[in-house]
Amino acid sequence: MNKTIELVNAWGSFEDKHPQGSLEDFCRYYLARKQEQPEKGVLVGGVVPHFIDGLLMKIIGRISKLNMLYANKALKDTGLHQIEEFGMLVTIRQEKHPKKTEVIYANLFELSSGTDMLNRLKKRALIREYADQEDRRSKRLELTPKGEKVLDRCYEQIRKNANMLMHDLADDDKQLCIQLLKGIEIRYSAQWQQDRSKSFDDIYQGVSGKTRETLKGEG
User: Fold this and answer.
1) DSSP secondary structure string, 49-90?
2) What would the mean pLDDT of 168-182 be, rounded to a whole number?
3) The whole model's pTM is what?
4) Would you say residue 18 lies in a domain?
5) Residues spanned by the domain of 150
């Protein structure tokens, strides 16, 4: 096949799958597919799902779990006990006096477990809670001076942990991963609260477009 036609076809395929992707994103995508590295060691703990969606999600899940394990080690003696607490404090700082529920849901917690974590942070004098001036039923949050210091200390540890885990990836490959996966994060972060009251079959049907009869057949 003519190389120009091959390149145009590759661009068309990429654009169909990633309509918001830039020319730079395409170049990273194209080169990454051409330069796949041989595997080293055992993939996903030796248990490899037989379907591609499952394998990808297991790799993502295990990386997330490993990130938590190493991040929690990096946070030792900082004043925080786990990376989820770091996420809570970052949200409170960035959002500037957010409501409790906004912090909880932004960090993908259920209301009860998120409230428990915020209460623990409050007991350690890292955050302060006060009534919303416009809605007395709501509570707003802010970092205490102690919380500000702890968060500043933790930023560097979390940055080093991320750099360590991603050490073997080139920056272009990291950008490619972000480009390919960010749509999933954006979509489900926006809809997960609405999905909490639905059955999984209803959620799956809404995404896949499959009917209940089809779902029964798959079961």
Assistant:
1) -SSHHHHHHHHHHHHHHHHHHHHHHHTTTTT-SSHHHHHHHH
2) 88
3) 0.76
4) no
5) 67-168
